[in-house]
Design brief:
This protein has 7 helices and 4 strands; from the N terminus they run H-E-H-H-E-H-E-H-H-E-H. By secondary structure, the protein is mainly alpha-helical.
């Protein structure tokens, strides 16, 4: 969460002239702002919509980059679909994401105590990210262009 998936994904796709899909944006485009979805349907309702948007994005065989919401990987159906895709885990830490968390302020999963919630979510999600990832990039202290450079090198070597 707040690892920079959407920004890195969008920039990576632009650099390589690929289609970019943000599954959180797909959900928001179809169902409204994510905080409102959480308020009306709860986390479970949001996760159902999210799983459908991930499945739709992955079903599109157009070469591209897909950015998933931080909790999307917790769905077992999504995990199965991701095993057939190239998955990159953007690893980070609280120090790196804290300014983003403070700036955005509209993340339902971080309501209450954002720092404590981020740490809890990271602890729960990290093993899943690691198990699904074909590649991991440590983004700590890196600007977006540097992350994209590393990612491009890794993907070119893996191709």
């Amino acid at each position: 969460m707040a690892a920079g998936k959407s920004v890195v994904g969008r920039e990576l796709a632009a650099r390589h002239r690929l289609k970019f899909t943000d599954t959180d944006q797909l959900v928001a485009d179809s169902h409204g702002p994510i905080p409102e979805i959480f308020a009306a349907r709860g986390e479970c309702g949001f996760r159902e919509l999210e799983a459908r948007s991930v499945a739709a994005a992955l079903a599109d065989k157009t070469p591209g980059v897909i950015s998933l919401g931080g909790g999307a990987v917790l769905d077992t159906g999504t995990q199965q679909l991701l095993r057939r895709a190239t998955v990159v885990f953007l690893d980070t830490d609280l120090e790196t994401v804290l300014p983003r968390i403070i700036r955005s302020g509209n993340r339902p999963m971080l309501a209450g105590d954002p720092v404590r919630r981020w740490e809890e979510l990271a602890k729960t999600r990290r093993p899943v990210y690691e198990s699904l990832a074909d590649f991991t990039i440590d983004t700590r202290g890196l600007a977006v262009p540097a992350v994209i450079d590393r990612l491009t090198t890794i993907l070119n070597e893996g191709a």
